[in-house]
Amino acid sequence: MKIETIAIHEGNKTDSSDRAVIQPITLSTTFERGLDGSYPGGHVYTRASNPNRSSLENVVARLEGGADAAAFSSGNAAGSAVFQSLEPGCHVIAPEDMYHGLRNLLKQVYAGILEFDFVDMSDIAGVRSLIKSNTRLIWIETPSNPLLKISDIREICKIAQAHDILVCCDNTFATPVFQRPLDLGANIVMHSSTKYMGGHSDVLGGVLITKEVDPFWQKVRDVQSLSGAVPSPFDCYMTVRGIKTLPYRMRGHAENAKKIAAFLNTHQAVEAVFYPGLTDHKMHEVAAAQMSDFGGMMSFTIKGTGAQALEVAGNLQVFTQATSLGGVESLVEHRASVEGPGTKTPENLLRISVGLENVDDLIDDLNQALSGL
Ligand code: PLP
Fold first, then answer.
1. N- or C-end of the chain: fewer Cβ atoms within 10 A?
2. Whole-number Å distance between alpha carbons of 238 and 242
3. Could you confirm whether 36 is annotated as catalytic?
4. Which tens digits make up the pLDDT trace of 168-205?
5. Is the pTM value of this prediction over 0.85?
6. Cβ–Cβ contacts within 10 Å for residue 88, how many?
7. What is the 163 CA–ligand 1 centroid distance (Å)?
8. Which of 62, 180, 195, 211 does the annotation list as catalytic?
9. In the annotation, is 47 catalytic?
10. How far is CA 261 from CA 88, 123, 268, in A?
11. CA distance 138 to 170
């Protein structure tokens, strides 16, 4: 089946007894045993599994071409399950511009449990030079947040495989509509489903998808059910509902983003635009070789100060100034002030999540907000 069909049907397991077209939300936390003590419904207790969660896990596994998936209560909880599944003392190589919440998770919660190094993931030689005998995981995020850097998934996976190292790829920005890391050699894919999968900025979640059901994945599953950072049945329902339109939404986001990137790229008040779809993006060719389109996220620096960048964000009328991304509405964010002290994000940078409004309205809005510079 093609991706549009998978997105609509693979997360919708209906019960033939009442002929509902849409899978209902199963709120029950517990499931009845049969006379022989078995569980004929296939579920025991909702922390371990639930019909809505199983449907969500099924559809995301199919979208990414994986063997299995596990859903969590947030993207960070999904990332944490990967780190928790490593043996203490393992070494992790992660991108220097990793999503700051996950970077802080490693630095603040896993310090003393795991060893880690942060590197520019677009520098393959730099990645190779950090491999040690206890390196067990390379974390990729491509395109990255917020600088839209591109890592070469195939090349990193080749190096990792030669050293028996797992690769987990945060595919939140690209989504399986535009990039399928498991096909390029990754072992695990991670998403903040809060973003494009949910698609409407109204449900938090995270998913992991595995290429193979191996002992590491069994550990991830144990962490999921024993730590219990699982999404509620309602959250799973909402995410499945969002996923049904994911392929069409992603095309709309990318189409609008391309036009906005072209507009910003020639604007006199803009210093630089970071969008992998632009042919002058440093890693455009790698992006084009591993992505079928370039998504709806971009950043740009203005010719001005951090305070002026904040002013531009504040002057926008159609874009809402807020964190997060991937919803139907356009958002703008001054990342440096969100990421706080120690961030490498330039002060004059604004990140935009291009929504599905009419692109002419979005361009007019950017034009009027930049005109004050
Ligand atoms: N990965 C990326 C690329 C993100 O942008 C985010 C959140 O912004 C996360 C992971 C974390 O996801 P969540 O906020 O759902 O925990």
1. N
2. 6
3. no
4. 999 999 999 999 999 999 999 999 999 999 999 999 99
5. yes
6. 9
7. 28
8. 195
9. yes
10. 44, 25, 13
11. 11
Distance 345 CA to ligand 1 centre (A): 17
Ligand 1 atom nearest 78 alpha carbon: 16
Q: What is the sign, positive or negative, of the torsion defined by CA atoms of 212, 213, 218, 222?
A: positive
Q: Give, for ligand 1, the residue of 194, 230, 331 to mutate: max count of ligand atoms closer than 8 Å to Cβ.
A: 194
> Which of the four pLDDT bands, split at 50, 70 and 90, describes residue 344?
confident
Return the exposure string of 306-328: e unless at least 16 CB atoms fall within 10 Å of the residue's CB, then b: eebbbbbbebbebbbeeeebbbe
Sketch out the chain's domains with CATH numbers.
Answer: 3-243 (3.40.640.10), 247-370 (3.90.1150.10)
- Token digits for 141? 């995020």
Ligand 1 atom, smallest distance to 101 CA: 11
How far out from the chain centre does Cα 21 lie? 29
Residue 260 is encoded by which pair of tokens?
């906005």
* Measured distance CA(106)–CA(103) in Å, rounded: 5
Query: Is 211 among the catalytic positions?
Result: no
Q: Is the peptide bond before 143 cis (omega within 30 degrees of 0)?
A: yes
Q: Which long-range contacts (CB under 8 A, 24 or more apart) does 306-310 make?
A: 306/334, 306/336, 306/337, 306/347, 306/348, 308/348, 308/373, 309/334, 309/347, 309/348, 309/349, 309/350, 310/334, 310/337
For the chain, how are helix, strand and coil distributed in percent, rounded to 5? 40, 15, 45
Taking only the tens place, the pLDDT of each residue in 80-106 is 999 999 999 999 999 999 999 999 999
In the residue annotation, 170 being an active-site residue is answered as yes
